[in-house]
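retry 2 of 3: previous attempt timed out while embedding L434P2JQ. Reduced batch size to 1 and resubmitted. Inputs unchanged:
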Amino acid sequence: AAVRQGIVDTVQKAVSDPQVKSVVICGQNGIFCGGADIKEFGKDISGPPLVPVFHAIESADKPVVAAIEGSALGGGLELALFCHYRITHSKARLGLPEVTLGLLPAAGGTQRLPRLIGVPAALDLITTGRHVTAAEALKLGFVDQVIDQNTVEAAVKFALSVVGQSLESRRISTLPCPCPDADALFEGVMQKVRQRARGAIAPVTCVQAIQAAVTLPYAQGMQREQELMATLFTSAQARALQYCFFSQRVVSRWSMPSGARWDTSKPKPVTKVAVIGLGTMGRGITVALAQAGLSVVAVETEQQQMIAGQRAVSDMLERAAQRRGVSSAVYRVRYSMKLEAVADVQLVIEAVFEDMVLKEQLFKQLSSICKADTLLCSNTSALDIDHLASQTRSPQLVVGMHFFAPAHVMKLLEVVHGPRSAPQAVATAMELGKRIGKVSVAVGNCRGFVGNRMLMPYSQEALFLVEEGASPEVVDRALEEFGFPMGFFRMSDLSGLDVGWRVRKADGLVKPGQMSRVRQGRRYCPLGDLLCEQGRFELPRGYRARQGLVSRRIDSKEVLERCLYSLINEGFRILEDGIAAGPEDIDMIYVFGYGWPRHRGGPMFYASQVGLDRVLQALEHYQQLHPDVPHLQPSRLLRKLVSSGSPPIHRWKEVIKKPHSAL
Ligand SMILES: CCCCCCCC/C=C\C=C\CC(=O)SCCNC(=O)CCNC(=O)[C@H](O)C(C)(C)COP(=O)(O)OP(=O)(O)OC[C@H]1O[C@@H](n2cnc3c(N)ncnc32)[C@H](O)[C@@H]1OP(=O)(O)O
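retry 2 succeeded.
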């Protein structure tokens, strides 16, 4: 509000003062403007409206120049678009990211950008919200000059040099918005955007607003922009997306049950890292590290795997170099078939086959080969980090670094700490994650950590639903309509049915050839095991007939409630156990690692939106119907939250307070 007031007062003064011949608008401390204060959204927004003042800038009879350094995002870029000229520092980033917050650029962005750079380019920038470099902005035509020197000084010089020149062509509102074959263009774009949006409404609304720029005169287009923004501003999706924006930052401020925290634990400097194992995960991890400028030693002891792995890594790095316009020689990867090659690194990431005996042996060897202060990390997706730590001479230097495939693409990193992990080890892994562009979340050690532990009840429910009569397509359709990129069955096919089979075998659940539907005292569905054993797809219908199961019609409501609420219920148990520090950690794990639709804010935020009492009632209902399924038993924390009046999500921690932590 204070910034808005400042802009209004100063612009009015500068525009009306006859002594002032030209005006430069700049930001402070090297940043032009990051846009509106997102924290103000959802509250009463006080202070003067900006758009009339922005129009006063445009219609001024003296040149107004934006001096853009750092960032010009959202409302900040819209302000710059009202200026007559934009002078930009080469390191600046520009964009209209409102769509990522569930909104649209409603200070004229959707009406003015297409007039300036054309409809297709504006559609791309506004519907994706991507930030562009100054060079790209210049190429697209929405900045006038890119410089490397002091931007404000250059802008002042420029502003003085254009005094007295006509400003007619510089007023974007007066420009036409040509769009040949507009109907066909918008039809095609709308189809693509809907597909990509997976149920998110803001991207679709952005297209409608830009269409108004083509079909309506400027003033009416501006009005339409306001009307469309009003439909988004208070929407549940906007709330969810804004929650994600802040949660992504909250998770970087990690804490451990011991009280150790991000702001009191200093990471160790890391420049040289080793990756052990060049399977799918090891390759992606190597690429991610090398791209971030780290020196990497990649070790693979099996010759064929080494040849294939080396080729795959080189290809990926070659493509990355082409994209960046640099030589692939900038990436420093050394390959070795000997474990001794890791002797001088500061951090090792083990990414070998998911086999505890193999990993135990490897950690023992690493512990004697590496320097005493080397961090030993495991990419295991479920195995006991504490047990691995116990194989080494310095268990405090062992943490999990759980990447998600493909590791050079997926944004999530779970940093797993055990009771003996040193805060500095966690800080170092978190910092390394940040450096390689990951959203890193610190979690406690338990079977499956946070993400995979919650996936277990979800996947079991998906299978139970098929036993009871749903087809895999019905289950997947409900989940995909909810917003997941892939339903459970398509995802299992893609990641390989044998992956889960191996985990179930390790848990002693698989009994080859046996059809029994109770294992370890609880309901079990062996369908997935049968598929793997027979090396083919078992038709659920035949299976149901042999099991004497009577199939029934199952609707998408039941699919969603059973799959999602059981996953959410496990999330509450994780909070109760102190495995995750807060609901934001769980939500970011699911948004960045498991395809949970961001516009639904993550599973725990979704539960808060649905209503905790409704989630509890549904779980109680299904638990009565399926008493042999323990994961449907509502967690203590869920009950406690409901009996505390279902506080908003940012106040859950007050109810959790004392987790029953084993850490
Ligand atoms: C010119 C007039 C100004 C007011 C305009 C109002 C006009 C109203 C009309 C139009 C409405 C427009 C809608 C918008 O503008 S929506 C906002 C669009 N902007 C964004 O989405 C930018 C979001 N921020 C970022 O992308 C980054 O934070 C960036 C600015 C690039 C800086 O990145 P980095 O240096 O990595 O720092 P952090 O991301 O860690 O951020 C540092 C802390 O600042 C908080 N932050 C950042 N941006 C905002 C914001 N727009 N509103 C509120 N808070 C913001 C961020 O949360 C960090 O704080 P903390 O660590 O405490 O979480």
